[in-house]
Give the backbone structure.
Amino acid sequence: MKLHIFQSKQSAVFCYGVLASILLLCGLLTGCGQNGASAAMAADTTSQATTAASDSYSTDLFAMDTVMTLTAYGDNAQAAVEASAAEIQRLEQIFSTNLETSSIARLNQNKEIQLPSEAITVLQKAIQLYQDTDGAFDITLYPVIKAWGFTTESYRIPALEELQQLLQHTGISGIQCDASTGMAQLTDTQAEIDLGGIVKGYTSDQVMQQMANHGVQSAVISLGGNVQTLGTKPDGSLWRVGIQDPDAPDDCICVVETANQAVITSGPYQRYFIGEDGTCYHHIMDPQTGAPAESGLSSVTIVSDSGILADGLSTALFVMGPEQALQYWKQHPADFDAILITTDRQIIITAGLVDCFQSEYDYYVFGE
Ligand code: AMP
Ligand code: MG
């Protein structure tokens, strides 16, 4: 890495000293090196919900294979949260590949079906991201993800030849979709897609819309540790979102202050298994190799107005690695900012975060 291109800064704020008095949203995840695999757990909004003003409402639910927490403030908070929970369950029925009856599962099975228009929208966004990221974000990796056992938790290490054979059927050339008719087709009959790298971000966008439709002006949600905020906290201050330390699952490595934005993290520790030789095999695949991406990063957090973009890019930039990820940001600085944590624990933030980022550790600012 060309770290000499960054300007080093030291934060004056000690992260943990302020945590007791603020809302901290930090995914409580199981890290590589511990036993077994684990999906992301709920963000810790409980203490805030119980100490908040009486006009707040919060609920936890399990959907899309992860724990979610939804909190809204003000009039209509309960109705907004309940409508949001129903919206999540509705979207799960469309997008979850592990529900046999979902639209995407039926597309994988039948190879050609009519999709609800919002599924076409998400599919088109995924295809666009594939193009924008030179294939780092690739929804056609589903057969590869299955081969590693991530869909069944019957983990295995596929042979190189098996992966090479599967990779012959990946890439977006095998997908066609037509927004005018709603028809989607997998023209390569061995192709299958998985929107798991983008759908929670789309869902959090839709939940924010539900909240706004109910007149809510202040809300915060965590979908398996992926956070999205509506407005500011009820007292007008910014939400403080803790980013998990990839090497210490119960701690935060830094805090981002934000309003009206998604803060979405991808990291190996969110889902993985340990091989017999002690190697950690995680769930973010390198489309070039069909194996878990070893890009020099241990987590990528994207901060953006758009949840779907933040989700897609957190996965894509993880695959790219630090240099390519920063170059990508340089081409799209208005769309998002990023926090990259390298496997040797360097923290790099993009320039847009400089006034809203705090960490007890040294960090580098890119692009100032
Ligand atoms: P995320 O947690 O948003 O990074 O998404 C990771 C999930 O996206 C994985 O569990 C897979 O279902 C899927 N996935 C893995 N690798 C990729 C990739 N390179 N591009 C798109 N989706 C991927
Ligand atoms: Mg993602």
The first helix runs from residue 46 to 51. The first strand starts at residue 7 and ends at 10. Residues 197-198, 266, 311-312, 314-315 surround magnesium ion (ligand 2) (CB under 6 Å). Residues 296 and 343 are 5 Å apart (CA to CA).
